[in-house]
Amino acid sequence: MESRADIVNMAASLHSITLPPSIGDDDDSLTWDVSIADIPSIDTDDEDTAVSPDNRTTLTYHAVAHGRCVVGTLPSLPTDDDSNIITWQTTQFDNQVVAVSSNDDGSVIASATKSHISLIKGGDGSLLASRQIASEKIRALSPSPGVVFVARPQNLTAPVPDALVVFRPSEGSSNVPSSDIILISNIDGMELNSPHLNRVREAVQEMSIDALTFSSMQVSSLSGVYVNEETIRFFVAGGGKVVVYDHNVKDMKTVLVVDNLLELMPGEWKHDTSTEMVIDGFIETGTYLTIAVTNEMGQHEICWFDTLDLSISVKYLCQCTIRSFKPIRSGIPEKCVAAAIATQDEVSRIHVVQSLIRDDGIPSKDSDSMVLFTIKIAESRPQSVEFATNTSEEKSPYAFRFLTKMSSDNTNAFVEFDSGKQQQAGMVHYLLANNAFDDAYKCIIEMEEHKSNNNMVSSSIHKSLVAVWQFRHVLLKGNISSKENIIEAKECLRRLASSAISGGDKGVEGLVDAAKFIMNWPKNHAAHRNCVISESTTISIQEVCMALSAMSTCITSVVEVLSTSKAVKLQEMIQQLDERQTALRGLRSLSEIDGLLLTFDDPYLAIRSLNDLLNCLVSQGAFKSVERLMKSQWGKNIGSDVVASSVLRIPASVDPRCFLPWLCDLILPTLSIGDPMLETIRAWSCGAADTYDEENGSSGLENAIMLLQAVSRATSRLTVATNNLFAHNTQVESNDEDEVPETPRHKAVNRPTVLNIGMISGMKSRSGKVFSAKRVGRPLAPASTDISLFPSSSTLISVDDELDYDCVENKLNEALRLKAARNLGITRDCLTLKNYSSKGEHYIVKQLVKATLQLVAETEEDVDKIRMYAKEGNADFDDALHQYAIELCDSSRDNIPNILKQAEKLARYCSSPAIRCLIVLKMLRKALVSIQRPPDLTGLAYDALSWVTDENVKSELEEALRLLSIDSLVRKYCGNGAQEFFRVNETSHCIRLVQHVCRHIDADGVLPDILVLCDAFNASVNKVDVCVSFIERVMAAAKPKTIKGRVADHVATIMEELYLKDHTLAERVGERMITFCSEILDDTRRVILQNLFPERAKQQAISASLTACSIISLMSANYDKSLKRNTDILTLLKEFQRLSNLQIECDVFVTLSELRNPSSCVAVLVSLLSPCVELLHGNSLMSVDSSVKEKLRSIIATAKHWCAILSDKPADLWSRSIGMIASQVAETTENHSSLLLLDASGVFDERAGQTSFHSIMSVALTLTGRGASEACNLSKSTSFISNDEGLSSTLTAMKSIAQASLILRDHIILYSPPSMLPSSITLANMTEFVCDVSTRADLGRSIK
Questions:
Q1: Is residue 714 classed as helix, strand or coil in its secondary structure?
Q2: Counting C-beta atoms within 10 Å of the first and last residue's C-beta, which end of the chain has fewer, N or C?
């Protein structure tokens, strides 16, 4: 390092400052005032450790972090002792200090460890305040915080207090907030350094602390600047972008200004997160945000953005990776910006760069920047380099301090750079950029008087620099053939030659720089700010040649004088200059380039050799000029390899018809089989074909086919020629073995084998043909050519080195197949020649099917064409259909019904039953997730079940069909959308759904739906129970007016459907329903007898009877008539029909068991004959009129009719019923009414029968018993002689005995069965005797 004497000598110098050892702990410090708002707590997951970012600054001009301490430093170097620069040292903090920042005057120092932030007095280093920002538990996990003071521009109308920003970027756990930013404002450094403790406390209390929330981005760097007295503009970097916010310190409101500042730059640039953003306040015209950016191409730039209008003012393109940087004060602060940049290449260096600020609002160009000083860092590869700058104008321009850190992190010293008198290097740059060459030369002379001997610091300023810049200026002015410009150019060359001879290495470098500039001239005019030539200006090739000749002559004269070691670079430049001059002369020989004139920015003016000229002509499509060039004297100097490799420069914009004759007739015949260049050209033709198809519209594919066919035919001709030559050489060798003829390059000397032809090292089959699998030899790399030679409108065709030798034939086959596919409807967006092989035939067939389905009306003919196309390409058409079906069904859930309709067409097109089943299975699964109601796929599903052969697929189909059936019924009966809430695996859901469907008794197709649900939920519900429940609901829903017809028809329809679907199920349901109907009759009979809601009970009984009749009728129709069971069911049918008829027509309700009981049937008939008792009451056989007899006959006829219905043996039932009702009449009436009833009933006409005898006998016995009963009652009375009631009883008894005697005499004795005759005669005699006695006695007293 330099000593203090060097500084006094005013040369650029480095001064090392050694830090003192750390001191012990001391707790005598102030604490943070409790009135300041708490900082929000930060939660972090328990992890190992968090790595500190590399862009934290621990060095300022007023303080430096030193382990767990902070050391105060003087802003200026002392003149006597190095140790006096250290002014104070803090006590040790809890952890290592990771960030340090100071305000402009150094009155307040902010430091941060991983867990605490602290404010330190800049005067004595005492601790003002400290605050914990992370708990000790999560300290190791937390990223290192950053501390930055907000910049205060000098042009503000009123002074503003200092503000400190503390931020901790989010890294590691996702639970850590995305940004933890704290603003500490209203910092008064003067008061905080006051010797009065009360004033210090008041100043601490005046400070305010607020938590800021910007965005959810990860913050890697942050800077702020006051834009006015109340607003701070924050620049927040994270994730590669820079977001701009405005924060009002009064109302604490934050407003987003720009979402990404870097989007204002042309190109895709991102913030280099390894560096910090810094506010540059050294510029008199305003403040600038300085930021390092990078792009995907690996380029690095440092940009200066105006903090007010956010426009980019200065850009500096750095050729190396930027480790860190810091803006510094320029020697011309009103016109230039400067920065110290640490780069990492083979050697770590620090460059002091200056760049001009453009007045026209356009960002600076490359010529606006210059490296003034280069400092070699002592450490070869430091871990980090930190910079510190001083805002004080007392410091010399370009001064800064820097600190290098190694991996050991033991920092014991930092270094200060002082430009001294050599600060005029910045003025030299400014004068050169403004063409003040004389003044610049004077400044350089003055600088050389204070030249430093320190080998660690070097400057790019030397005397030859003026001549280089002036020579550039002459060339950039244009019209160099003028006398004035020629004289000035010659003077510049003379000075350059003189400097190269006498100025050492820097003089030689100046001459080389001038030669490099002219090698790129005039194409490089746009990179310089002083260029006044427009792009449309024409320039003479002779002028360029003249400049090249002059430069070559100048360098040649220098080489003759210099030593050999120094002349190596110059000799290389002479060769390059001569080659370019020769190429331009060759270009000049072509008066016109296919009829086109040259302009100033024409790519032909950038050629450097004849090879470049040929490549440039080919790249422009000037093949006529190429032929003329090759026939000229210049063409003889171009090697055949270069000519062949120029094919690779043909752009995609050139029509292949322009170059195919040249390629196939002149280039390819010069090659030989096995030549790597032939292989490369064939690979290029494949790439060209791909490019044609992509960029040349409708004709692109035709051009690609044309090119591939031409190259393939040319290669075939070359192969035939090679084989013919082999046969000829074999014959010559057999004639004269010692004589070997010389052959040109395209002729093979030896027999063409597999190895030297380079055909194949293995074979493989593709699409039924045999193709080579691998090339043995690899093609030579094409000759390198500056890409700048080609115009921006041209598109270079890439060459794939991995292609097989037979790639042309493969590509041609693909092109023809692609053409056929395009004719069938595939689009260019879907398939190009480039991705044909990667997509494959299977994909193409799938896309063709997709395109066909999108037609308004596709036909079978269209599908057959695609099927034929797939067959020709050995593609599985059915598998393509399956894949497209999968693609369709895996798409979004929108418009699923339309998707299913298309998939149904795919299933119809498919010829493979197995794949068709898979398509149907995919359709069924897709229908299950449809928001809209899907079409009915049941028929298609059952068809698939009939096709399937795989048991696994069959099982999946059955399950999918089951789920789809359930889904369809849920939508049908519960509404579309209910399926979202239905769960098949929930038993309660299943049962409730079945019950809900059973309620819809009048819905069309409800029974099939119920059966489907029963099959689907066979583990949860019983099909018989569900069907019985459904018919029960039909019965229960019947109305009185519709019971007779509708219920029977409805039940019959249900049973018919059941028999059609499942005969066994129908029988079981029928049996259950018959039992149920019988039980209903029993229940309703009890209710009717109890007189509880009798009308409702009667309706239910009628419904049950009708239902049973309908069911039994269908059961009997479906039974085998030869079986005995059929007889039983017919009997049961008759019984329920009898019950139904009684209920509906007679309002008589009995049970089935009562119907089968004769006594009950008699009771029914008695109830039917009961009106006879009322009709005959009070009428005798002689006094009754004819109307009564007619009514009596009508009642009896009706009762007799129902008697015939109720029993298969009606005579017995009828006589019993008549006997019973006649006995009732005999009990209640007189005057032979019972005889009238017996006569009207026809019993007397049937008295030969045993049943009639019993009926007549019962009446006789009833009359006898009535008479005996009356006589018995009369005998018990003591006043019967005088009592009228007694007289009536006597008469009743006499009449009853008389009627009984009459019946016995006239009817019973005459027709009594033999077994009953004795008893009948005895009874008749007794009644006759009683009648005689009662007739002879008075009032019948002898009766007793």
A1: helix
A2: C
Distance CA(249)–CA(1173), nearest Å, equals: 116
Task: Name which of 148, 138, 91, 89 is nearest 114 in CA terms.
Answer: 138
Q: What does the alpha-carbon distance between residue 1014 and residue 1048 come to, in Å, rounded to a whole number?
A: 25
Separation between Cα atoms, residue 1001 and residue 1010, nearest integer Å = 11
Reference 1089, options 1163, 1032, 1030; nearest CA is 1163
Q: Are 1065 and 1058 in contact (CB under 8 A)?
A: yes
User: Angle 403-408-413 (CA atoms, 0-180°, nearest 5)?
Assistant: 30
DSSP state of 331: S
Contacts for 550 with CB less than 8 Å, ≥ 6 apart = 489, 490, 493
Q: What is the pLDDT confidence band of residue 120, given thresholds at 50, 70 and 90?
A: very high
Average confidence score pLDDT of the chain: 77
Q: What is the pLDDT of residue 768?
A: 36
Angle between the 836-853 and 807-824 helix axes, to the nearest 10 degrees?
Answer: 10
* pLDDT-derived band at 408, boundaries 50, 70, 90: low
Quote the tokens at residue 1084.
């309703």
Reply yes or no on whether the pLDDT at 794 is more than 70: no
Whether this prediction's pTM lies above 0.85 is answered by no
Locus of tokens 């000790």? 136
Nearest to 1250 by CA among 1199, 1302, 1316: 1316
Q: What one-character DSSP code corresponds to residue 379?
A: S
Regarding predicted confidence, which is higher, 556 or 565? 556
Alpha carbon distances (Å) from 550 to 472, 497, 515, 892: 14, 12, 10, 72
Measured between alpha carbons, how far is residue 915 from residues 870, 922, 949, 1185, 1220 in Å?
A: 16, 11, 11, 94, 83
List, for residues 1209-1250, the tens digit of each pLDDT value: 666 667 677 767 777 676 677 666 666 677 667 666 655 455
Buried/exposed code over 136-163 (b: 16+ C-beta within 10 A; e: otherwise)? eebbbbbbbbbbbbbbbbeeeeeebbbb
- What backbone torsions phi and psi does residue 326 show, to the nearest 5 degrees? -155, 130
Question: How do strand 116-121 and strand 127-132 relate by DSSP bridges?
Answer: antiparallel
Percent of the chain past pLDDT 70, that is, above it, reads 77
3-state SS class at 949: coil
Q: How far apart are CA 219 and CA 505, in angstroms?
A: 47
Cross-strand pairs, 101? 110
Integer-rounded Cα radius of gyration of the chain:
60
For 1286-1340, the pLDDT digits (tens) are 566 677 777 777 777 777 777 777 667 777 778 777 777 777 777 777 777 654 4
Provide the 10 A C-beta neighbour count for residue 1: 14
How far apart are alpha carbons 704 and 685 in whole angstroms? 8
Per-position DSSP letters for 628-655, written without gaps between them: HHHHSTTGGGS-HHHHHHGGGG--TTS-
DSSP, collapsed to helix, strand or coil, labels residue 1297 as helix
Peptide bond preceding 522: is omega within 30 degrees of 0, i.e. cis? yes
* Closest to 354 (Cα-Cα) out of 340, 365, 342: 340
Q: What secondary structure letter does DSSP report for 665?
A: I
Residue pLDDT, tens place only, 291-327: 999 998 888 999 999 999 999 889 998 888 898 999 9
> CA–CA distance from 71 to each of 57, 91, 92, 462 (Å)?
14, 10, 11, 40
Coil vs helix vs strand at 180? strand
Rounded Cα distance, 1235 and 339, in Å: 147
Strand partners, 127: 120
pLDDT tens per residue across span 674-695: 888 888 888 888 988 988 888 8
Among the listed residues 9, 40, 329, the one whose alpha carbon sits nearest the alpha carbon of residue 183: 40
pLDDT band at residue 801 under the 50/70/90 scheme:
low
Give the list of residues 6+ apart from residue 61 with CB closer than 8 angstroms, or none. Answer: 73, 75, 102, 106, 388, 389, 390, 401
Q: Which two three-digit tokens encode residue 100?
A: 């340090």
